[in-house]
Amino acid sequence: MANTRQHHQVHEQKLEQLVKSMTFYILENVDNKLDIRSPSTLLNYVLVYKLFLEWLIAEGIAEQEYIKDIPLLVLEKLKLIVAQSLIKYLERRNIYINKKETKKAEKVSVNWKISALRSLSTQTENDEGEPYFYRNVMLKIEVNKVKETLGARASRISSKISHNDEDARFLEFVKYNYEKELPEKSRKLIYFKRDKKRDFAILSLFLGSGIRVNELSNLRLRPGFRRKTNTRLRKGGKRI
Fold it and tell me: Has this prediction a pTM greater than 0.90?
């Protein structure tokens, strides 16, 4: 859990540094979402904006040297053919895995980037209360959902869930047998014994409730946990 909180803080720091190189309208767009989006989500949004603006400069569509100086007028006057070229670039570019391997972007990833760029339309206003720009050509780009048959979906989901009491057997293994497989007098064994009750409680809650990892990592012990039931507000405003 500590690692997840550290991960959260790292994303906050990266986001804070990255927005310094962004245009004022993107900075305001991000600021408007700070209370409703996680730092990780916002960081990913800004990385998409950065990729987009750098592409505009590289293609000569924006004449500015730095992305911070690209005016709203450039975005408002983009032609559909330019937006389509951007999508082709996102789909065809090589993404480096390591020095020897590259891959193409998955359709889901491209769709997410389109959605992020769509959000730049009317999220901010000028001093007169008018949107910075009314026309966002990215709204004309269709987001084609990845299609899969019911059988393929069932197979994909089946590979990610527990079957035939596998979750119960896993918890039983952690509670009674895991420490037997750790070397005697090792740090792993010492730490496991120290944190066994806590870790078992975490695993039980995770497997029994369907809570997300980031939601679980942000939980704090409070008097309310003495009750038999607790309510969590999840992503999308859903309660569990």
Answer: no
